[in-house]
Structures are given as structure tokens and as C-alpha cells.
């Protein structure tokens, strides 16, 4: 079974994320770097959209975009339970359009790495630019900046529990083709749901985008200003490469 076919277990797996702190940080970036403020937010590759749900709870307009209908169904259900209204769009993140522009767009947890070519990344930047009002921000979390660290390749595991459901997550990166900068990413969820055991796995080919290559592609696209690399949890510019990071762009 696919990891993305079971949104609840996926959400539990990443339940360690402090979404209140993350959205607080979004608001700080907006206050300092946006030229237009923000009332309407777009979460790209949103999944269960923990951050977007917090944004909706704060009274902002919230739009979630994902290629998984199961994730969007789950998001709508959670929004109804939480008493918020969230607009959802079923689309690929390299080929979408919005009926109403947004003021702030974001993509979390390295999801941008699923874009598997420079042409597709340029298309993605165009689609985001088309959807974002001039002066608004695009926040990208966890590009693979620290590609030279010794443990870049390999696997890591962690366990999360909620309401009697236990999820062990294993996330692995392996090199597929160095010349093409292609990687194979695999995520496995081992679930114990009150004695019911499930094994979920998703394996995808992704493309490594090096830091200066990313800046060059942003410049080639020509529709954003690159504002810098920041720490993932603070509005502090990076002094050295880190896997926990934010790239911040502003729509021209």
C-alpha cells in the first residue's frame, strides 16, 4: 500500500512538527519581507496540511494543492471537524492554475525535490509566479543544501504514537545516477493500529538540485527575487549548509 493512500498514518508519522511555531515564523517573514502582507495562503504538495490547517484556524484564507485525492479528501474532513474552510485543488505542482491569486505560497518538508528535472522546476516556478501576487513570498523548506555531509545517503527511523496508534517511519536516500543528479527516496511506515498491522511504502526517483544551481534557475526564470537561505525554525540567515533550511523568494 502507498504511504499517501493513508493520510492519518502519514500525519501521525510527522506529528513531531511544531506547526504553531512554523506559522508564527511565516508571519514574521511576511512582516519583514513581503511587500503586500498576506490574507490568502497556498500550500503546495500539502498532504494532511498541518500548517495550512493552523493558518485556517487563524482566520486566513487557505488553499491546499496536492496530486493525491486521498490527501485532499482527508484535508477537507479535518477542516470540517476543526470548523475551518479550506479550498482544495487536485493538480500536479508543475502544472496548475488558481482562479484567485494568493499572497503567500509555501512548500514543506523537501517536497520540492519530487520535481525531477530542471525544466519541470522552471515550470513549477512559473506556475507559482502565476498564482502569487507581485510582492508576495514563496517559502521553500528543506532543499538539500548539506549534500556533502557524510551521512547524506542512508536511512533514518523514528516512532510516533497518537491515540493508541503507533507508526514507525523509515526514510532512506540512495544515489541512483550521479551524472544526472538522480536519487531514489523511499519512505516506509510500519503501523500498529490497535493490533491491526499495516506496512506502507513509497519509493520515488527525485533530483538533487545544488544550492547555486537553484539560485541560477530562479534567476533564469526571472520572476522572483532570491532573498536568501534561512534557518528552518528561526528568521536567521544560514551561516553554513544545513538540511534544515528555508529558501525565501519574492515575486517581482
Strand order of the largest sheet: 3-2-1-4-5-11-10
Taken as a percent bin, the fraction of beta residues is: 35-45%
Number of H/I helices? 6
Helical content class:
25-40%
H/E topology pattern: HHEHEHEEHEEEEEHEE
- Total number of distinct structural domains: 2
Can you summarize the main beta sheet?
7 strands, mixed
Based on helices, strands and strand pairing, what is the structural class? Answer: alpha/beta
Number of strands: 11
Stated plainly, the CATH topology of the largest domain is called Rossmann fold
Low-confidence stretches: none
Structure described in brief:
27% of the residues lie in helices and 37% in strands.
Name the features.
2 domains; alpha/beta; N-terminal domain of TfIIb; 6 helices; 252 residues
Fold and architecture overview:
By secondary structure, this protein is an alpha/beta fold. The protein has 2 domains: 184 residues, Rossmann fold (3-Layer(aba) Sandwich), CATH 3.40.50.150; 54 residues, S-adenosyl-L-methionine-dependent methyltransferases (N-terminal domain of TfIIb, Single Sheet). Helix content is 27%, strand content 37%. The protein has 6 helices and 11 strands. Strand 2, helix 4 and strand 3 form a beta-alpha-beta unit. Helix 2 packs across helix 3 and helix 5 crosses helix 6. The model has no long low-confidence stretch (mean pLDDT 96).
